[in-house]
Automatic annotation (TrEMBL):
Gene3D superfamilies: Immunoglobulins. The lineage of its organism: Eukaryota, Metazoa, Ecdysozoa, Arthropoda, Hexapoda. Residues 33-127 form the Ig-like domain. The keyword Signal applies. It comes from Bombyx mori. The keyword Transport does not apply. PROSITE patterns: IG_LIKE. It comes from the Eukaryota. Residues 1-19 form the signal peptide. Keywords: Signal. This is Ig-like domain-containing protein. It holds the Pfam family V-set.
Length: 276
């Protein structure tokens, strides 16, 4: 039933648009504030002569190209729509200095000459994101850590729209949920639509957190599909003098394994003794 409806709509449309056929509207679906965008409108006149190409945002016309007119190109000011005419043509419109007001439904409309004035139109939505120009910030970290020290660090991404997705890694491995607090979201003071995101890492240092004496803490921030940045902080284990061995340094994880095996042995032995 649905398929038949679509077929009928297509047939009716085809009937109206006899001469001008819109081939493709090439518009980015996601852009960043402050950036620029090229909007492309590829069409097939099928023998007809071009009368005009018009561009609309949310139903309001902002660009027109009519080749038969003395000044073929014209643009009109709309909030968030800044056309650069020298980079625009019959098939492309260049927008610059995008703002949050640039987001909206963009349409390209192509019409043929008299007598038919046949028109074809296509439209697409453009979303505009506020993207930080720096990576996430880490706070609360010390230079060095001892074993059994508590590591508490906040990873914070500057205000963005939408909110960022944060992820912590220790030595490139994702951190278990129980070592995380948050995420916390704070509305930006000067942009009620922008959100600052924080995720806290909180864990007690164990020997297995060090690889070759170093512990690498990384926070990744993602605002799909436009932004992914990470910040890494590397810390060296601060061993008490008694534990420090001259070169080569024994891997702390081995110590840990031996300790574990001794404790297993102890448990086994006590079970045996209890049985006897
Ligand atoms: C349009 O783009 C050109 C080339 O990038 C640039 O030189 C010019 O300043 C721009 N015009 C406006 C009005 O921004
Ligand atoms: C974009 O902003 C720059 C800097 O303010 C300006 O020079 C340029 O003309 C603007 N572009 C358009 C198309 O308005
Ligand atoms: C981390 O962020 C929370 C919530 O904003 C705050 O209460 C806490 O003091 C921060 N801690 C550090 C170490 O920055
Ligand atoms: C500790 O025990 C595990 C198995 O439980 C074994 O694979 C490992 O080699 C042992 N480590 C040492 C240092 O004995």
């Amino acid at each position: 039933m649905y398929g038949i409806t679509i077929l009928i709509i297509l047939l009716v449309k085809q009937d109206i648009v006899r001469s001008v056929r819109l081939v493709e509207l090439r518009v980015p679906t996601h852009e960043r504030e402050g950036g620029s965008a090229l909007l492309g409108c590829q069409y097939d006149l099928e023998g007809d002569t071009l009368y005009a190409v018009k561009w609309y945002k949310d139903g309001k016309e902002f660009f027109k190209y009519a080749p038969r007119i003395q000044t073929p190109m014209k643009h009109f000011k709309l909030p968030g729509v800044h056309v650069n005419e020298s980079r625009s043509s019959t098939t492309v419109v260049a927008l610059e200095n995008l703002t949050r007001e640039s987001a909206g439904l963009y349409a390209c409309e192509v019409s043929g000459e008299a007598p038919s004035f046949m028109t074809a139109r296509s439209e697409k939505y453009i979303t505009v994101h506020l993207i930080p120009d720096t990576g996430p910030k880490l706070t609360g970290l010390k230079d060095k850590y001892f074993l059994d020290d508590l590591v508490v660090s906040n990873c914070t991404t500057a205000p963005s729209t939408p909110e960022a997705h944060l992820k912590w890694l220790i030595n490139d491995r994702p951190v278990l949920k129980r070592f995380l607090r948050g995420p916390w979201y704070r509305v930006s003071a000067d942009r009620p639509d922008a959100i600052e995101t924080t995720l806290q890492l909180r864990f007690t240092v164990t020997p297995s957190d060090f690889v070759d004496g170093a512990m690498k803490l990384t926070c990744q921030s993602t605002i799909a599909p436009l932004y992914q940045q990470e910040t890494t902080s590397t810390h060296y284990i601060d061993l008490p003098l008694s534990l420090e061995t001259p070169s080569p340094v024994s891997s702390p994880s081995t110590d840990h394994a031996i300790k574990t095996n001794w404790s297993i042995l102890t448990v086994l032995l006590s079970v045996l003794f209890l049985r006897i």
